[in-house]
Amino acid sequence: FLRGTVECAAHPLTGYAPMEKAYWLDLYQKAKAYGVNHFRFHSWCPPRAAFEAADELGIYLQPEGPFWTNHGTAVGNGWPIDQYIREECDRILRAYGNHPSFVLFAYGNEPAGRHQITFLNGLVDYWKEQDPRRLYTHASIGGSWPLAPSNEFIVCSGSRGLPWDRRPNSEFDFSGKIAPFNVPYVAHEMGQYCVFPNFEEIPKYTGVYQAKNFEMFKAELERKNMGPQARDFFMASGKFQAICYKNEIEASLRTPGNGGTQLLSLNDFPGQGSALVGVTDVFWEPKEYITAEEFRRFFSPTVPIARFPKFVYSNDEQLTVAAEVAHFGPEILQGCLPEWKVCDDKGKIVAKGELPATEITFGNLALGRISLSLDFAREAGQYKLSLSLGKCSNQWDFWVYPASLPEDDITDIFVTDDYKQAAEQAQQGARVLLLAAGKVEKGKEVVQYFRPVFWNTSWFQMRPPHTLGILTRPEHPALAAFPTEYHSNLQWWELLHNQQVMNLDDFPAGFLPIVQPIDTWFINRKLGLIFEARLGSGRLMVCSADISSAPDQRIVARQMRHSLLHYMNSEQFAPPFEISQEQLSALFEPGHDDNYDVRTSDSPMDLKP
Question: Reduced to 3 states, what is the DSSP secondary structure of residue 61?
């Protein structure tokens, strides 16, 4: 099973790939600490030192020809590029073909051309005849590209993605995507989940490049009066990025017969608008929201797997989870005793058990089922299931909510979905809960999915989603009855996916929402999902997430409403900031704002011939 990363030739200190073996030994060791055993070099071939280091450390390499013939050119049309491809690929195979780490090869990335398959399939046949010591594929491709019949393995994006347009679960896998093929199938460019820039990286650019992109993003954030939140945005979006990678990688691991995955990527890519998709920075230095050891729990030769049908439960339900292991280590593991435990958010064990001892053979193996009643949870809470096999362990968060709640007391709270009524009541001194779901005008151009930004919004023409998860304040008393961390996690799906956000740019400079969606760093709008404010002599709570509909089916939303109302009934409900009626009205009145649609159908400058 290939646990790969895509190496995109980003070397900001030199501007070129270092030629020293010591550099590549260090880079591969850093990658191995995260569980990586494979590198795909995206549309380029590394220097000899990279092969020598990989030979020494046991890294499987997929170099490629220096070709992404898709923008302004094409293959198979008899143009000079065809001859160049043949000759350059021949040179690569002659120069580096004797290295044992050189196990895979492709012409390059995502070609164009009506005759691409005829040309590239012939090239694969030629390579196989000339040097059969490795496996060949015509190209590394997205899901809409055709496949060459002579491929000995496939690198394609079909076996990737998180189906989070539906409630998250960990039962799905990619079996249906790989089933039609009888050669190994490797996921192309898996991941690409963005994190907010870490401006503390700017001083690291001591070579030929300066971090002008980061400097611009930082200046824009400061212009929007959110400079002090930069680190919080980075950490919160990073925690969620790690959750996304874990869930997608585990889906790949639990797919029987899968060939592996190539992450895009373990480190950041500073080009194409700034693709901040790595759990390390562009220098391969760790980002502190996840350690190499934590990442390796789900990206290593032996990974315990749990198939959750869902991650949100009520306390009158039974948790039933299928336990498995994905084992691709060097030997069969004898006499393993799978052990599991469930802990609360304080680390207290609330349940534990063992599954039958077994021999762990290669591939995917069922270990048994974990089942327990959740009636131990008297209040809403976050829990963690841990599954261990000797030194290998993995863990998953899940949430348990009361099956029923007492009726909320709204005697002293005016609840409405009409902002005019909300303003009128607040001016008269009332406590007001404004349910703004579906009502927002100022901010409606910001599209929020549960998944974060893919690659980056600049490269993909500002297509949605536009947010990077949320930053919230779990210590705020409004969330006292709603268990949460400071970042998005799976229980938030109900409150975030396809929910409106509010643009609070015109609010007071230091204004902090209780729940703040993190905007794409190219625009840095101050966004709110839930905020409180004084208005006139009254107090106002505004929520643009739907916390009203189908409460018996949407128990997370029901719990949020309960928590907000409990807070609003208390003496703690004392919003620190005041807003005007005009500022409130601007959120909901058509034409009362400076909305603009930043999406475009034009190509990024990098793609224009």
Answer: strand
Would you call 239 helix, strand, or coil by DSSP?
Answer: helix
Report the pLDDT averaged over residues 503-524.
97
DSSP state of 96: H
pTM of the predicted model as reported, rounded to 2 decimal places: 0.96
User: What's the sign of the alpha-carbon dihedral 74, 80, 85, 86?
Assistant: positive
Cα separation of 455 and 520, whole Å? 11
Q: What tokens were used for 480?
A: 């006292």
- Tell me the DSSP string of 110-178: ----TTHHHHHHHHHHHHHHH-TTSEEES-EE-TTS---TT-SSEEEGGG----TTS---S---SHHHH
pLDDT tens readout for residues 475-496: 999 999 999 999 999 999 999 9
pLDDT digits (tens, 9 = 90+) for 107-116: 999 999 999 9
Q: CA angle 449-451-457, nearest 5°?
A: 80
What is the C-alpha end-to-end distance of the chain, expressed in Å?
A: 38
Of 562, 306, 594, 300, the residue nearest 444 (C-alpha): 594
Lookup: tokens for 102: 């050189």
Cross-strand pairs, 539: 431, 534
Q: What is the DSSP string of 316-341?
A: TSEEEEEEEEEE-SSSPEEEE--EEE
Contacts of 443 by beta carbon, 8 Å cutoff, 6+ apart: 500, 501, 502, 503, 525, 527, 544, 587
Structure tokens, 304:
């315990």
Q: Which residues of 386-421 are buried (b: 16+ CB within 10 A; e: fewer)?
A: bbbbeebebbbbbbbbbeeeeebeeeebbbeeebee
Structure tokens at 216: 């611009």
Residue 139 CA to residue 291 CA, distance in Å, equals: 33
Domains of the chain: 2-290 (3.20.20.80), 303-401 (2.60.40.1930), 413-586 (no CATH)
pLDDT beyond 70 at 8: yes
CA distance 61 to 50: 9
What's the CA gap between 394 and 302, in Å, rounded? Answer: 10
Cβ burial of 135 (10 Å; 0-12, 13-18, 19+) is: middle
Peptide bond into 314 cis (omega under 30): no
Backbone angles phi, psi at 229, to 5 degrees: -90, 0
CB count in 10 Å sphere of residue 348: 8
